[in-house]
Amino acid sequence: MEEVPHDCPGADSAQAGRGASCQGCPNQRLCASGAGATPDPAIEEIKEKMKTVKHKILVLSGKGGVGKSTFSAHLAHGLAEDENTQVALLDIDICGPSIPKIMGLEGEQYVDENLGVMSVGFLLSSPDDAVIWRGPKKNGMIKQFLRDVDWGEVDYLIVDTPPGTSDEHLSVVQYLTAARIDGAVIITTPQEVSLQDVRKEISFCRKVKLPVIGVVENMSGFICPNCKKESQIFPPTTGGAAAMCQDLKLPLLGRVPLDPHIGKSCDQGQSFLAEAPDSPATVAYRSIIQRIQEFCNLHQSKEENLISS
Amino acid sequence: MEAAAEPGNLAGVQHIILILSGKGGVGKSTVCTELALALRHAGKKVGILDVDLCGPSIPRMLRAQGKAVHQCNGGWVPVFADQEQSISLMSVGFLLEQPDEAVVWRGPKKNALIKQFVSDVAWGQLDYLVVDTPPGTSDEHMAAVEALRPYRPLGALVVTTPQAVSVGDVRRELTFCRKTGLRVMGVVENMSGFTCPHCAECTSVFSRGGGEELARLAGVPFLGSVPLDPALTRSLEEGRDFIQEFPNSPAFPALAAIAQKILDATPAQAS
């Protein structure tokens, strides 16, 4: 089976569409027409637009249902608790846009004065509307979100993504690279079936040279509300995120336990951090958010030192 | 009058079922694997086609990871999960050189592979082909439905978890089914509550009620709720036969009932 980096000459190479390994590739005609040769003008336009956005963080997984949207929403809530911090949350999960529900929005785009949200969910007229789009159309929407939304002065832009390593992920990295992404936060649950996919996501990050801020292990243990004893609903049969992080030399930002109130808060569009400030899950979230802020600030001062030296 | 399907590699497959969700992480691959095992226990020959190209979970769930795909005159030979060759599999997972290799493909290339999985795998004689899908309503789903349409699938089993955030996505998947003419055989609600092994208290970890509500809204049958059972998760992690090993698990009766409903809903005479 052809592996894209080995045999594919690259969409922007002189051999694009013409190489021996291009035979049979569905993109052959497109590449041969030279369409891949010129960089998309939108990339520069987006770079300009992003000048007023200080930090850009992608929330990725690879695996579905591990809590990317839940985490993105609460990262946004946590950062926005400081009213002097401007936060924007962009949901590029075009087929399954969960962010509006989790943020308690049904059309308005501002949760608070300093917390704005954008999602394809706002553009759908009914909760039953399905966005049955192929890759190129999804890419177009993402380009529009990045280029045509007036983001204004933003301290943190958080981008929530769908599971996988496909069009949406390639596009958001492609369109934002010139504007510099601080890094990606990778979400997983403890069991191997998740880690298996997450390792692929980490490979993806390495391939596209996207820095990884760290990994969050979600649904890490459950405390029974009745007897207070802990159980592992999703057993870390291969050592959980800790073992994976050690293997891949990545920071484990934290572990968030399963608290049934999280699901409820998301269903009701409330901030779990505000609803359950004493939950061990809230404590875990806050510590993770702090580490992310530290990473971003460190990044920023390194850049500033480079520029001034 | 519909043109008859060209005889091809699916000519010997009696019934095709797609497992869909819309939402990620609700247990599509789990339900797919458990349904295949249950149908096998009922004496059926089953194939599993895994069209989740970015996150292929099926090989590991049946302890088949690392096996190679061979060629024969009819095309690719599916990988067998067992000695008796009662469960055959096809997944991009078998085609990767390294297990952690990421399949970073855009839509058109994914579509091409899925078409190949349908037309170029020598499935042979099967009672059921169960198709596992990734979350969403995009390239993979359209490619699978289009490629399988000539073979008239029995329908789709739609999986959700109880909370509103899942139901919100799964409603859209039901619209996808309607728009593409795919019959919905029913809704399965997974991760319906967790019984604490220490004190037996049952907690609704992921809220409650969503599955039945969804089935009611969409006017489709509710096939059942499957509770959370770490023994089930562990079986899947280790590629073991949960149905054989854990008949006393709280998840077992629900899974067995779902399989029985599928068997009951299958027309007796295949064309």
CATH class division of the largest domain in chain A: Alpha Beta
**How many separate helices of chain B?**
9
| Radius of gyration computed on alpha carbons of chain B | 18 Å
| Coarse structural class of chain B | alpha/beta
Mean pLDDT over all positions of chain B: 90
The oligomeric status of these chains comes to heterodimer
GO molecular function, one term (chain B): ATP binding
Family (chain B): Belongs to the Mrp/NBP35 ATP-binding proteins family. NUBP2/CFD1 subfamily.
Keywords (chain B): 4Fe-4S, ATP-binding, Cytoplasm, Cytoskeleton, Iron, Iron-sulfur, Metal-binding, Nucleotide-binding, Nucleus
Subcellular location (chain B): Cytoplasm, Cytoskeleton, Cilium axoneme; Cytoplasm, Cytoskeleton, Microtubule organizing center, Centrosome, Centriole; Nucleus; Cytoplasm, Cytoskeleton, Microtubule organizing center, Centrosome
Short description:
Chain A is 41% helix and 16% strand. Chain A has 309 residues and is α/β, with parallel strands linked by helices.
